[in-house]
Structures are given as structure tokens and as C-alpha cells.
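Input sequence (118 aa), recorded before submission:
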Amino acid sequence: QVQLVESGGGSVQAGGSLRLSCAASGRTFSSYGMGWFRQAPGKEREFVAAISGSGSTTYYVDSVKGRFTISRDVAKNTVYLQMQSLKPEDTAVYYCAVELSDFTYDYWGQGTQVTVSS
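Predicted structure, C-alpha cell format:
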């Protein structure tokens, strides 16, 4: 049984920081890319960041570049999203997923809520 569990969300004032974690169990995903997505109320799910299986390559949506950092700990089978200088527009439910093939994600987690107040 494969399960991804996001954690670390919460409420923070604008300019604050949070670190999200995505812990995988049931399988090891060290050879697969991992991604973070978010969905705000009334909006479609949006790509946020991704990291390659080796951890050598990362990608970010323009709106979070310079503020968010994606990383992974292979030994712990865990992916992180360090978020700094948070803005109200970052408010959303954040999800992680496994990139089973190019641009194809599966094994979605249940999400963790991030709320940023002004």
C-alpha cells in the first residue's frame, strides 16, 4: 500500500515562513521526481515546484521563485517545501505527488492547508 502524507501547514502572517513535508510509505520513490501543487478556493490546481529523482534539478513556478525551496531526503523517503516571505496569494491546500513518467503525476497526498493573512 502506497501512501503520501503532507504535513507542516498552518496559519501565518504575511512575510512569515513554513516548511511542508511529504512522507511516503509503502514504496521508495528515490528514482522518481516529486512535485508540489496547490489549489486555492475557486481556482484550479496549480504546479508549484518539482525535484528530480537525483535531487540535482529543481523547477519552480515564477510566482514562488526566490521564496520557495524544494528538497528531498532519500533516506527518509521525504520531500520538503521550504516557504519564505509568504504572501496572502499563497493561501491554498498544498499537495505532493510522484512523477511516475514525464509530466504524469500520481499517488497524490491528502493535502495540507496553508493560510497567509495580511
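Checked by second reader. The chain has a mean pLDDT of 96.
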